[in-house]
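Pipeline run #58 for the internal structure catalog. This entry was flagged by the ingest filter as a single-chain record with no existing model, so it goes straight to prediction. Upstream metadata was stripped on purpose; only the residue string is passed forward. Reviewer on rotation: M.T. Logging verbosity set to normal.
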Amino acid sequence: MKLLIGRKLGMTQVFGETGDVTGVTVLEVGPCHVVQVKTEERDGYRAVQLGFGPQKEHRVKKPQRGHLRKAGVGALRVLKESLLDEDEEVNPGDVVKVDQVFAPGDVVDVVGISKGRGFSGTVKRHGFGRGPESHGSKNIREPGSTGMHTFPGRVFKGKKMPGQFGARRTTVKNLTVVEVDPERNRLLVRGGVPGPAGGIVWVQRAKTPPAGRRAGPDRGSR
């Protein structure tokens, strides 16, 4: 298993044996229910579909409700697919807990939806500097020239302009797992992760861990 679904609870700090303090994000990861298992014979690849978060049944659409009922699990809020290794065997209805996938010292990538900040100007969105606020200034927070004239007569794609800020899928790579609490399904990772408190995240083994670091228990750097 390479991935588990969870939600962000907030941030705190952990003190080490020598008194050093580490800022960590507390994640509630799992338990995740196995909803579907995909095979090479039927689907062309090996993967498992995981579900997380109890949900009121009337909030789940009828086709998805039948899909979950077939697996023998209740209504779930989030479904996510994860690739399976060759030697891994799981069945629909199984429950995967956080300590079965991650251990202290692992390096993980955390994916989430960043906080949405609405339509924002260039100062807030891109960190532009502002103009003078003295009398007569008409360029306090304006973006300035976009740099186009008769030729080419258009604004190039990707130009930093005002627009929607945040509310996008964001990945924070190579975070270290500081602590695992299987009794409360807690995972403490060093540093910050995207999204607000209560936001859905998925934690996966690091795809490009630093040299000499492991991406999972006895998994090497895969």
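catalog note: Residues 3-117+168-205 form a domain with the Elongation Factor Tu (Ef-tu); domain 3 fold (CATH 2.40.30.10).
catalog note: Helices lie at 40-43, 62-71, 122-126.
status: ready for reviewer M.T.
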